[in-house]
Amino acid sequence: MTEQQIPQNAEQWYHFLSEKQPPVRLSIIKRLQKKLADPNCSVNHLSKLIKSDPLLCFHVALAAGRLHDEKQSEITSIDHAIGSLGMHKLEQLINSLPTLRLNPASTAQKMYFRAVANSHHAATQVHQWLKQCRGGMFAEESYLAALFYNIGHWLLWYFAPQHMVKIQIMIREKDVGPELAETRVLGCTIDGISKRLLSLWPVSSLARVTLENSTPLNRQMILQLHQRALSDPRLDGDQLRQLNHLTQQKFFPVKLGNLLALTANYGWGKEATLHLIDIINDYLRGELNRTFAFLHRNCVMASRNYHVAGTLAPAAEMLMLESDLSPTYRLTATDRKLFQLPHDKSISESAKTHATTTVNRPTPPQRVAAEAATDQPDAGRISRDEVASKGHQQNPAQEAATLEIPAKAQNPAEDEPVGGPETQPAIRTAERDSVPDADFLDKNLYRQYLQRFNELGDYYSQGAQVLNDLLKALIAGLGMQRAALIILPPKSNSLKVVKATGFADDHPLPHSTHILGPKSLFSRLNEKPGCLLINQTNREQVRTMLPATFSRHVSQEDYLLMSLIASNRSVVIIYADRDNTADGVQTFHHKKFKDLCNSAGRCLDHVYKLRAGAKK
């Protein structure tokens, strides 16, 4: 991705992808254009070619869906969509589509077509199930829904391949569950992105309904469906009635087909795949051996009906013997040229010494500052309630809001947002910053920590580790002289400094407690995200809003205060100064301080989501 702003949730990915058009193979467009050049060509002549390519089906369904949307009606099959457009509109559409000639050295392009083939396999399975057990009722509509259910996978592999590679590495090399891996990298599941896109694109109302009803078919429900398939006596009457109702829903086979296609992608012999086959066998009311054979025949059909030269369809792979081989999913040098991607930058060995190890027990956000404090030998234990901070309704990506302090106290620099708007969070890399090296104490170290926070990868498993590295980056990288972590426990008027670095051993501020007044600046920082540069212009105004015991011990020169937001709440307030330096805190330091703290806040938010997911 070449955009300077990286999406962080389903809504932001929707805004990024909603105007994109997935390209179609150039070869099939040329075949269609050759047919169109024939004066005897009709819609029926084009229909077979269009239905042979899921990408063409998408563009045709989208164009027809928009026509039907104006009349408040819906398309129910590919044939319906083709007939709705007619010859003239089909010709216009075919000549306007973006095309792609497959580069065999491009992993991203091959995985793009693989994702399309995976959806085609799911749609083929669903179509055949309904023909066998429902007499073909809703078969065409369900085929359409199953085909577009995973539209997010298609677009992400072509327009955000770096993110998809990270997801594949987590799943295939680190045994992270697909949904958890997607959430860690994208900030949401791909199902969530697909659901949002299908709310805009009227290609299949059933696909949209299926995604909206994905929650009932969660891991627990899959387990219960498997128990039902095995006639497990532990299921009570209410559970059986709920499961029977679920299996009769129109969206059920669509969801089940896509679950099978995605899960079997990692092996037919996997336990999760075998459980799904038991559920499918129960849905088809068949015998297990015959169901296995039926599913494999559908694999053959799917791989034969849709094939891209130079790639191997997932359905074809599923017919092969079990092996440790997996498809190539890492980007090549060709990919970086084709998609204009930057080369990966490795972190130096000195920075890697801070890499974290996996832990078994989740760490709630409210305990993070207390855990950070335990690194100090003389730090006392802080209870969960003391560290818990006040929640608010602001999204972490909306850190831009400035504090509503009097005009005299407000610094002009604070009118600039700390982060971008919610749809475009500003995650800017150090490479874009053209500033003199002398302004940093250690520019490379600052960049290393900023990159670690922005990558949202595997460096951190606890929030305290993020905060510890933030302090190191502020002191050793940016060149701040002193920094401190401050918390304001809920339902308390006592401010606690839980960790500090750079202060003299006998300094009274580290691990001190301060009583807040009725109009405390800290209370506002705890409620709203913001970053303040306290200088000679606003010092006296701000002093009236701080506890006297705190203000008398902070720098008499310029200093910075910023609330760190994660999991929709203030975790800590960061204090930093450049006491006893020649130049003090400059606008440069103010800006880099905000960038670093924003990135650390996003990283914290990601750690909490990851641990919450692991807890589930």
Automatic annotation (TrEMBL):
Residues 22-217 form the HDOD domain. Residues 342-380, 410-435 are annotated as: Disordered. SUPFAM superfamilies: HD-domain/PDEase-like. Residues 348-361 have a biased composition (Polar residues). It comes from the Bacteria. It holds the Pfam family HDOD. PROSITE patterns: HDOD. This is HD-like signal output (HDOD) domain, no enzymatic activity. It comes from Amphritea atlantica.
